[in-house]
Write a structure and sequence with these properties.
By secondary structure, this protein is an alpha/beta fold. It is 39% helix and 18% strand. It has eleven helices and 15 strands. Bound molecules: nicotinamide-adenine-dinucleotide.
């Protein structure tokens, strides 16, 4: 019979540790004295301080070696929302997460911390100071979110104090920070191609953008407060900057910080939404002839033009969460970290 190495309460595995959030998580965990394994399908960075395990989380035999002797697993792997591959989302986020749960149980892991998303309750209409007890979206904004819902439900259901297996989910929203391959590079690309001239709506809609260090802090606090009989068991928590900001103010600060012009004109929300619906209809009609992937979609219009910010009071109460970096400082650090994307002049 194979012998299981003794778990150390400071030994953890970050699934998706090569990604944007994952790498920041690894850095903070090392600073806090954790022994860190990174599990990912790719090696995203070099470090002698961590042990890398390359593999697919959909395969239990890939996962098991990375979980040996580990107490806590942080699961922050996912295909990018932009990948637009339904089967991949389903396989990785849903059935793959079921495999993660099985592998954790088999390896004797005691705590599983999932990175979920606040979008699991968002249906494209205003959410102001949303609490965790909002129902899951009946009509999720996209298929990625649909699989994030399935994933979160399964992880929370797997919480089982009697089996010494505890689970919790963190729901971040709009993560930003240095080395993010999505938000800033996409924003700069849009600005360069002249797509950032129009603001959607009146510019007053508040949303959460959450600096990556705060998201990491929330995950680590969740792992450390997740104990038998603690309120965290089997629950989901919003982690935000606790400073909702108008969507277009945030975009303006990022753009101007990188020396690009902020949007000058505004287009009414309803008009943008119906135009995006029209584009989607055209794409559907033309599908037999040509495949088009428009970026101007009703979902993107909703994300840019509605209120969607969430309360993190529950995380403050149950795990003593408090943002470690303000929005202003987060924006400053982020802008500074992209000198190569700055417009000259
Ligand atoms: P990312 O794409 O930078 O990182 C995801 C990592 O998962 C990548 O390194 C990728 O290689 C890995 N991965 C994908 N499929 C895998 C597989 N089959 N096996 C092993 N590894 C695999 O994404 P991110 O922005 O760091 O997001 C991390 C998590 O946070 C995701 O779960 C995402 O849904 C969630 N989230 C992100 C945001 C955001 O604004 N970025 C907001 C809310 C929630």
């Amino acid at each position: 019979m194979a012998t299981r190495s003794r778990p150390s309460s400071k030994k953890c595995t970050v699934i998706g540790g090569s990604g944007f959030l994952g790498q920041h998580m690894v850095e903070r965990l090392l600073e806090r004295g954790y022994i860190v394994n990174v599990f990912d399908i790719r090696k995203g960075f070099e470090s002698e301080k961590v042990q890398f395990f390359l593999g697919d989380l959909c395969k239990k035999q890939d996962l098991l070696p990375a979980l040996e002797g580990v107490t806590v697993v942080f699961h922050c792997a996912s295909p990018p929302p932009s990948s637009d591959n339904k089967q991949l989302f389903y396989n990785v986020n849903y059935t793959g997460t079921q495999t993660v749960i099985q592998a954790c149980k088999e390896a004797g892991v005691q705590k599983l911390v999932l990175t979920s998303s606040a979008s699991v309750v968002f249906e494209g209409t205003d959410i102001k100071n949303g609490q965790e007890d909002l129902p899951y979206a009946k009509k999720p904004i996209d298929y990625y979110t649909e699989t994030k819902i399935l994933q979160e439900k399964d992880v929370l259901k797997a919480n089982s104090p009697d089996d010494n297996f505890l689970t919790v989910a963190i729901r971040p929203h709009g993560i930003f920070g240095p080395r993010d391959p999505q938000l800033v590079p996409i924003l700069v690309e849009a600005a360069k191609s002249g797509k950032m001239k129009f603001m959607i709506g009146n510019g007053k809609n508040l949303v959460d953008f959450t600096y990556v260090d705060n998201v990491v802090h929330g995950h680590i606090l969740a792992a450390e407060h997740l104990q038998k009989d603690s309120p965290l068991c089997g629950k989901a928590y919003h982690i935000t900057n606790d400073e909702p900001v108008p969507f277009w103010t945030f975009m303006t600060e990022m753009l101007e910080g990188l020396n690009y012009d902020a949007p000058k004109y505004s287009i009414p929300y309803w008009l943008a939404y119906y135009l995006a619906c029209l584009v989607s209809l055209l794409v559907l009609l033309l599908k037999p002839l040509i495949t088009l992937k428009p970026t101007f979609t009703p979902m993107r219009v909703a994300l840019a033009g509605t209120f969607h910010y969430y309360s993190c009071e529950q995380a403050k109460r149950d795990m003593g969460y408090k943002p470690v970096c303000s929005l202003e400082e987060g924006i400053r650090r982020t802008v500074q970290s992209y000198p190569h994307l700055r417009r000259d002049g």
